[in-house]
Design a protein that fits this description.
By secondary structure, the protein is of the alpha/beta class. It has 2 domains: about 110 residues, Aspartate Aminotransferase, domain 1 (Alpha-Beta Complex), CATH 3.90.1150.10; about 260 residues, Type I PLP-dependent aspartate aminotransferase-like (Major domain) (Aspartate Aminotransferase, domain 2, 3-Layer(aba) Sandwich). Helix content is about 35%, strand content about 15%.
């Protein structure tokens, strides 16, 4: 993309065209306390090697694998990425490809997205998947908006065990247009309590995450039946760890109308928090209300197979204010990485990997229990779980950090009623030696 600098005369001419005297007048609608007053305090220039050294020093302030032994999950998971995925993504036709609006010259990109959609529907067990969204949080928000469009209702219910940041994003999306968001409490076993649901005929959708933020596996089957007591209310299954479906029944089998969540675990490095991959699948009968874009397969006039953008009329460049979503693109490279990962692992590989994750978490859970820590919920978990440590564990947590161990996340920030509760995670990247070392340190 070329860079066109604007001269002073250019700026003056543009301001005159819109009836303004200065650039500052452009920002008048933004509250003053949200605007910077004065110039940016930027450091002086550095030589290339000095800049590298500076960046290395900044990186050393971060506790990251493999230098640190990480036992964190909470929506972002450390998994091995096969080298074949890394190498294939380096192909220039993949990482420089742009939005495939012209199918006659974008067949490779369109086919890759089509393959992603196919593999996603197989993983989630639902008929149709879109070409991906920004991340799990935006996918949930869009799922709820989709349910509102379909049912013409203005109220949704979200489990309080859906990832706290997902719930925050959903509220941001839904509150401004005047929709009502109700949060469902959790039970003593660490799963969602549906007893507080009022008249189901008032709800557009009920959203439940499994495994939930506590790591507990929800009974989506029975929950879905309760939600579907009203035939119009949609059941939304949310996830942050798609590898769990290598062992668990997928959302489609358990009655979900929409399945959405984060696909970062599927071949995408954590990368200090992003980018991620919003996965989204729904029943075929709702396809015309889906957000984002959809790639379809067709044949040309010579009978040859081809791929095209299908139902792209939902996007802003065509429908403008009537677009069904403010997302008019897809995380194409991340979706491609997930496609390569799922294709390389296959169903058998994902199942074996899921079993390994589960078993390692159970080993760590058993070891921590032997130190005197308690597991507050007896509900089955996948690869992360909640632990209640004795009072004063914050000091131990800080000591462990000094020894390059990150012993989970204190969830009292999100759940003040649960002090001294930490969410820990174990994946295939955590060795037995790592886990034994953590158990020994906690017990000492």
């Amino acid at each position: 993309m070329r860079y066109f600098p604007h001269t002073g005369e250019d700026i003056k001419e543009m301001l005159q065209e819109i009836g303004l005297e200065s650039l500052d007048e452009l920002f008048v609608p933004i509250p003053e306390d949200c605007r910077r007053d004065g110039d940016l305090q930027l450091p002086g220039p550095l030589a290339e090697w000095e800049l590298n050294a500076h960046m290395d020093a900044l990186a050393e302030d971060m506790a990251v694998s493999p230098e640190y032994r990480i036992f964190l999950g909470a929506g972002s998971y450390n998994h091995f990425v096969p080298e074949v995925v890394r190498q294939l993504l380096l192909r220039s036709e993949f990482y420089t490809a742009y939005t495939p609006y012209q199918p006659e010259i974008s067949q490779g990109t369109l086919q890759a997205i089509y393959e992603y959609q196919t593999l996603t529907t197989r993983l989630l067990g639902i008929e149709v998947a879109n070409a991906s969204m920004y991340d799990g949080a935006s996918a949930l928000a869009e799922a709820l908006l989709m349910a509102i469009r379909i049912t013409k209702r203005k109220k949704v219910a979200i489990s309080s065990l859906v990832h706290p940041l997902y719930r925050q994003v959903a509220r941001t999306y839904l509150t401004a247009p005047g929709y009502e968001v109700e949060e469902l409490p959790y039970q003593e076993n660490g799963t969602t309590d549906l007893s507080s649901l009022g008249n189901l005929a008032e709800y557009a959708a009920v959203a439940i995450q499994s495994p939930n933020f506590f790591g507990c596996i929800e009974d989506l089957g029975s929950q879905g039946k309760k939600v579907h007591a009203d035939q119009k209310t949609l059941f939304v299954a949310v996830f942050t760890e798609p590898l769990a479906y290598g062992l668990l029944n997928n959302p489609g089998e358990l009655g979900a109308d929409i399945a959405c969540g984060e696909g970062q675990s599927l071949g995408i490095p954590q990368s200090f928090g992003g980018p991620g991959l919003g996965m989204f699948a729904a029943r075929q009968k709702f396809v015309r209300n889906m957000p984002g874009r959809l790639v379809g397969r067709t044949t040309d006039r010579n009978g040859r197979r081809g791929f095209v953008l299908t139902l792209a009329t939902r996007e802003q460049h065509i429908r403008r204010e009537r677009a069904t979503s403010n997302i008019c693109s897809n995380h194409g490279l991340c979706a491609l990485a997930a496609t390569m990962y799922m294709a390389c692992a296959g169903g058998t590989g994902i199942r074996e990997l899921a079993q390994l994750n589960h078993d390692k978490a159970e080993y760590l859970k058993k070891g921590l229990r032997s130190t005197g820590a308690t597991i507050p919920f007896d509900t089955p978990t996948f690869n992360e779980f909640l632990v209640r440590f004795p009072a004063g564990f914050k000091e131990i947590h800080a000591r462990l950090l000094g020894k390059k161990m990150v012993a989970g996340i204190d969830i009292s920030t999100f759940y003040p009623e649960l002090p001294d509760h930490y969410l820990l995670c174990a994946t295939e990247t955590n060795t037995r030696e790592d886990m034994d070392a953590l158990i020994k340190e906690v017990g000492s």
